[in-house]
């Protein structure tokens, strides 16, 4: 395991606030695709993530079949469960899974956890979210007292509509889920970030720590990723790298980037220099 970041830097990143709930880390981590439960547990620990997302369908199915379950291996006194509706193709399916996810959170002792990562994906090839279905399901779940974090394409209009119906954060994709293509639509992502009054968490497509840092430097509130860590040659080290990338990008953003210039500007002063 790599050395931990000195705690003196951590206050610079500021906590992530979602619906009045405070989280020390701005990196959210998924739990799928790991080679083993042990590898997943160590990677999650190395990432220092506060929020961990779990696919409700997979967790519930494994429970029914009596299979070993990552959910049972994590310390939910230190982690916050973000159930997700991955695999749902319709509004009705997503709503049903959301209620099941809230019940799972209750069973883990998180009685006040109403969080749900909302995914409605009817496109089986590219896995792009259904914008109409997502908006419809989000509005319903908000009215049922869920803290809704919808996964969407980088559509500024839809992102604003989701904010207006009461979503607590919006999670636009950087590029197709699991693709590792990085941030492919920088203009739309920046518009979404600039227009938002709620947290914007870049979700999907990030493949490297530099891309995670880039998302944070744009002003994103956080980054959610899974495949980039789980499918790395060394997931445990990659989790650490992603943690540092997110922290670095956040500190860079709040520090304020220098303005770009058309011409070179000497870094050394021209006045008062020694001349023969």
From TrEMBL:
Residues 18-269 form the Thiazole synthase ThiG domain. GO terms for cellular component: chloroplast. The active site is at residue 117. GO terms for molecular function: thiazole synthase activity. Signal peptide: none annotated. InterPro entries: Aldolase_TIM, Thiazole_synthase_ThiG, ThiG. CDD domains: ThiG. Its main location: plastid. The keyword Chloroplast applies. It is found in: Plastid, Chloroplast. 1-deoxy-D-xylulose 5-phosphate binds at residues 178, 204-205, 226-227. Pathway: Cofactor biosynthesis; thiamine diphosphate biosynthesis. Its EC number is 2.8.1.10. GO terms for biological process: thiamine diphosphate biosynthetic process. Catalyzes the rearrangement of 1-deoxy-D-xylulose 5-phosphate (DXP) to produce the thiazole phosphate moiety of thiamine. Sulfur is provided by the thiocarboxylate moiety of the carrier protein ThiS. In vitro, sulfur can be provided by H(2)S. Homotetramer. Forms heterodimers with either ThiH or ThiS. HAMAP family: ThiG (MF_00443). This is Thiazole synthase. It comes from Gracilaria vermiculophylla.
